[in-house]
Amino acid sequence: MRLLNRLMLLIPVTIALFAIVDGHASSDPSNKARYDRFRIYRVLLETEEQVQLMQQLENRSDSYTFMGHARHTNQNLTIMVAPQKIAEMSDLMERFHIRGSVLLHNIQDLIDKEDSTVMPSGNDPEHFDWQHYFHLDTIHKWLDLQVTKHSSILQSIPLQASYEGNLIKGVKLSKKSGNTAVFVECGIHAREWISPAVCTYLLNQLLTSTTSDVQDLAENFDWFFFPVVNPDGYKYTFEADRLWRKNRKPYGLCRGVDLNRNFESDWNGIGASSDPCAYDFAGGSAASESETQVLQKFLKENAQSSRIKTYFSMHSFSQLIMFPYGYTADKVQNYEDLQTIGERGSEAIRRTHGKEYVSGAMIETIYPSSGDSVDWAYSECDVPVAFTFELRGPPDSTKMFILPAEEIEPTGEETLAAYVAMLKAARELGYYESAETQKGEL
Ligand SMILES: [Zn+2]
């Protein structure tokens, strides 16, 4: 009885505490993550001892945030180091003769600078542009506005799913029947803000450009655009932690699944983690996350009927154009074709603003990964032309995911040029023949 009484007393207090924490945790600006004096190191692992050392370091301490994992010698690795560990990091590098440099001395400086280019939430979608970064609500309102303005060719696709109840909003652009379709997936990793920005840039170009190449793409392909497939995570990067990557579903002590490790393609294999606190946590099971489930379902239902032959997954950074597989060194059956198409893309990018993008199979160009959307679309939905883009900046970028807003437009321009070149190459290789011709050939 006494115990029950004590419990009864505790309940209102507990509820009140939860109300405070739950109601304001992520929206209270004073709770926002800060990265004062956090450094970015870029190191070259030259010996097996150094590789093992970095592996131990990643497992032992969350004051070191690894971008990729230490795997083998002759590997460059980017590591974010918390200020209280800078002395330790310098000491380790000296003692173990690790070559490397500090790419950035204070991440918070970059975030502060970027703030002036972030338009406030609730912004009028009529004022949308590609000189600023926009909150989720504005991107969604801008999509709605486009559907209203171009109602004869543009259709809204609101997918009901995210842990926090935000929509995954997409659109379909179609000017005539009989086209094959291109699926563009953006914003699966929350902090990669350039991805949704380029996504809306590309859609806007397809709707308004007077250039014949772009008009040809708008006319002769159907387009699915999903600018923010991880809406909860994207929101969280604006409200609470600029460097958040995963979705926001709680798993015990930690939160968030890396949605690009959660697809049902070699799930939780190489390059994914089963630790919920890791940045590349694969989830509780294959397609455990509602965001993954609705995307998989939508693609399964539409890949054949809408003739989706091309899939672009847009990320940053590293300047890469990659095709499957991510989880095995086995070559895909149309490896040569995808190599050619990817190279046409990087050539087009080079011609636009001189940026160097490397193209190749995912496992050869970046690092092994499993459960990613592009491998899944390629293997499970028979989408033969499937690419992951890592947009600006370069692999040794000093800005990482915090790409200055003035680079949105040029990044959009070169990506559009890549799309033009890649779809042209794939068309020449026979990937987009009409349904009738394909049937005839069979
Ligand atoms: Zn990414």
UniProtKB/TrEMBL annotation:
Pfam families found in the cross-reference section: Peptidase_M14, Propep_M14
Molecular function via GO: metallocarboxypeptidase activity; zinc ion binding
Names of required cofactors: Zn(2+)
Compartments it resides in: Secreted
Domain Peptidase M14: 132-426
One Gene Ontology term, aspect cellular component: extracellular space
Signal peptide coordinates: 1-23
GO biological process, one term: proteolysis
Entry-linked InterPro entries: CARBOXYPEPT_ZN_2 (IPR057247), M14A-like_propep (IPR036990), M14A_act_pep (IPR003146), Peptidase_M14 (IPR000834)
Active site per the UniProt annotation: 390
Keywords: Carboxypeptidase, Disulfide bond, Hydrolase, Metal-binding, Metalloprotease, Protease, Secreted, Signal, Zinc
PANTHER family reported for this sequence: FI16720P1 (PTHR11705:SF60), PROTEASE FAMILY M14 CARBOXYPEPTIDASE A,B (PTHR11705)
Sequence similarity: Belongs to the peptidase M14 family.
Reported function: Involved in the digestion of the blood meal.
Protein name in UniProt: Zinc carboxypeptidase A 1
Gene: CPA-II
